[in-house]
Hints:
Blueprint lengths: L27 E6 L13 E3 L8 E2 L5 E9 L12 E6 L6 E5 L13 E2 L14 E2 L5 E8 L14 E6 L6 E5 L11 E2 L18 E8 L9 E6 L5 E5 L2 E2 L6 E5 L5 E3 L2 E10 L8 E5 L8 E5 L10 E2 L21 E6 L1 E2 L7 E7 L2 E7 L19 E12 L5 E8 L13 E6 L5 E6 L11 E2 L10 E2 L5 E9 L4 E10 L3 E11 L19 E3 L20 E8 L4 E8 L16 E2 L1 H9 L16 H9 L2 E2 L2
Antiparallel strand pairs: 1-38, 2-4, 3-4, 4-5, 5-6, 7-9, 8-9, 9-10, 10-11, 12-13, 13-14, 14-15, 16-17, 17-19, 18-19, 19-20, 20-21, 22-24, 23-25, 25-26, 27-28, 28-29, 29-30, 31-33, 32-33, 33-34, 34-35, 36-37, 37-38, 39-40
Helix pairs in contact: 1-2
Amino acid sequence: MKIKSQLFVGLFLSASVTASVLAGETWQVLVVVDGSAPASISGVKGAVWVPNSLNNPVIDQDGFVTFRGTLAGAGITATGANANHIVVVTGDGSGPFSVVARNNSGVPGNTPATAIFSRTGSPNNSIASANNISEDGGILVSGYMTGTGIVNSGTATQNDTAMWFIPKSGAPKLLAQRLDPCPGTAGALYSTNPMNGGSGLRVNSLGQALFNVSLTGGDTVTANNSAIVLLQEGADQLVIRKGDPAPGLPGVTVNPGSFGQFLNGSKVMFNGTLAGSGISTSNDSAHFTNIGVANGLRIFAREGDAIPGLKGLSFPSGSSFSLSYGQRPLANDGTITFISELAGNVTALNNRAVMTENSGTFTILMRKGESVPGITDSADPNFAGKLFSSPTNAGFVRNRNGLLAFEGIIMNADGSAINLPAPATYFGVRKPDGSLITICKQTDPVPGLPGWVIGSLSGGQTSLCVSDTGVVVFLVPMSNATLQESGTALMAWDEVGGFRLLGKATSQDVAPFTPTGDTNFTGTPINQLTLIGSTGNNGDGGHTGFSTSGWLVLRANDSANSKSAIARIYLGPSAPACPADVNGSGSVDAADLATLLAGWGTTSPDLNGDGVVNGSDLATVLAAWGPCN
């Protein structure tokens, strides 16, 4: 994929390349906010971005960036009924950003007619701050409205919130308005505010969004007053309603969970609680999906049940049963990735695992008590003999090609936890062939930054993300005892290009302070780098902060001088010795061909970088058939 050359908007700065970034990996600054730089937005003149007002940006497969921010300047009002300072914009930097939504402007598609985005009492919340997009750049917008037919108060009649999908081309679509009818019911209405979809809401390229909604009116009673609905233009689809029969369990009903709904195309997944005949607190928790059934739903994991195909193993009962999902847990091929405690034929040394499930088949990818390359066999006494314990619950993700990246926690050989401040964390990947690679460990030096060492890699703070081209990106806490500074390094890794630095933000622990953070983002040393992290997921099985094709976007801040920036970079894979070996198995074979055909017409696995999987990529696979040289 070629990078466009004319990419600077707002304050024109020359972006530099961090020394250890590979050739071609160049930061492109799209927006700089310092309170005076003009905001380059089509149809908006005389405005500037307000410092510290930009929400996390998101990016699609083509490098288009979307974000919400606050404006000031000529013609901008920030209070009262005429407030027009909140705006959502999108663009790729080749020209001014386009307005997606703005308060005191008409709602997308002018539906409902005459409605405008407005919330007099709280104008900063007139448009939701969560930037949810589909993989191809469709944008989900939620907001408060005023106008003819819009009622702003009264629980029985208030209909002033709504949600729209704005495709990259074509007309906007109204997905839901408060008090819309719920499908599959006798007159029940949506009572949940669509503004409450939040940062975890996923939208797919068809303009569908999975939504947990409270119900009111019609046939609603306490036993059926919520539902999970697939929102779409026209006729929404009821996935399940509280009180519906549990699949495969006569006399049992389901109360779907309020959080943890996952969408990938037409595939859905959620958790819930069972009630009815034979149900107790030892078997009432379950996880559901529509994968692998012609119609309806199935339970793929249930508290206390044996795990099919894994002899002697079961899911635990009671408080120990809780599946943990990382980013992108629902893959395009129907594979579900999760962490679970194990019961049955286990000990305290091996009772936890990273697993996958696909249409009833369970596979253990990594299990507590296993050895770790570069740690178990390390010469460093801090790590020698230590064993794998688990990834952190929020710090693991598996891409479409089967590469699992994770924040790893290690333990002593007897299963006991490692007492701080002794190092207990590392970062690793599991390749599709099952082999493990340790990328870095706590206390390792930071590549390209002499004197800096890596801090704890746990708690989901790394904002881990992975492209389908095999590039892993994450934030690393770091410190420098000599300089008495701490900071954050943005790191990238792929199997060919290795572990490398993309950027750094630093702050002084002890005065006097000589800033050393990167200056290529705001023109001054930055002290904060922010990736959207685990909430940045779309409904197509991808991540909204690091596209599956390799576009990464972030926010960089110099809080000392109230400056910030939004920048993007294209992180294509380093040139492999055997590009047709899609799954990294060491040979080009039927598995690589199957992956290629499954991705036909999409952007992955794009072997020649022309932006689409097509006949040229097929020719590359066939020409390289056999063992890699």
